[in-house]
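Hi, here's the filled form for the chain we discussed.

Project: internal
Contact: R.S.
Residues: 385
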Amino acid sequence: MVAAARRGQPLRQVARRFGVALSTLQYWLRHAHGQRLDRVDWSDQPRGPRTPANRVSAQLEDRVLTLRDQLHRRSDLGHRGAVAIRQALAEQSGPPLPSVRTIGRILERRGVLDGNARQRRPPPPLGWYLPAVAAGRAELDSLDAVEGLVLRGGPAVQVLTGVSLHGGLAAAWPVADPVTAAFVLTALEGHWRQFGLPGYAQFDNDSLFQGSHTHADVIGRVMRLCLSLKVTPVFAPPRETGFQAAIENFNGAWQDKVWSRFEHTGLEDLGQRSQRYVAALRRLRAERIAAAPARRPFPPRWHLDLQARPRGRLIYLRRTDAAGQVSVLGHTWLVAATWVQRLVRVEVNLPAGPVRCYRLRRREPAEQPLLGELPYRLPERLFHE
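And the returned structure, exactly as it came back:
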């Protein structure tokens, strides 16, 4: 191979002929540079001694393991980690001593570590708790409200935010504190008229989105809007991480890129900067938005009748209590006595039920068996605005 290269043949041709990488051929040419081929040392051994000078001796490794066993069986504390072993070595022989990290590497190399390595599993797909969203057949819009913002010398501000799960289609509506359910209706209607209807709309459990928590069987304005447009409302489980990650990430980005970056002269100035940021973000995500699941066109002759009897499906993501029960719509239902402190998807079919409960596990996102059905009927009563 080196001889062929020295005869003037192209290096890439020589490398292909002998089935090696070009860098390998170049390495051996440098190795043999200026020497007759019969005098070149082709062994390619690394320079220096075969055993590194700082290599721990086998006797010391055996001594470390012996001390670990003795500490486990005889010491008062029972500690047998690297720190305890090094202290025992210091008491017996004094310096020089191996470092704590070196002792730890000895224990790891000899396979006697007590701890188990953390098992990392791949994350579940986006929207894994909703089969249609996980499979990419439906889009989900997440909505939230950012609170606690105050303009200098001006009013307190809240921001209604929204972002789609697959496409990343973002929206933000800054308003004078507080955001009301009527404002949410107006904002959502305008947004969905412009971009189309998703299959699902996800919220937290604030009364802004759910309605009053004082009484049972309350179907709030935002829920009635979604149901009238055949968009399934989804409510994230309280005090659970991950389910609201998309909207929380957008909230953080909006506050960083809009709210904190400028000094706003008023609500109108803030709104204009927010609109420019959202428009730029949509342009940046144009390909992702186009590749997202298709959104349904907004019905042309639709109008919201808040007194109409709600029909459709509500979805609540909940964690069962110690008795296997969940609380939904002011009622406590037994899901399964064997499924305690676990996630479930509760589907309430309106107006006459049933309520279906499905098992959820992040480790098995595709396995969501039915745990049980419960009877339910929404009482007939007028909606009080």
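Let me know if anything looks off before we file it.
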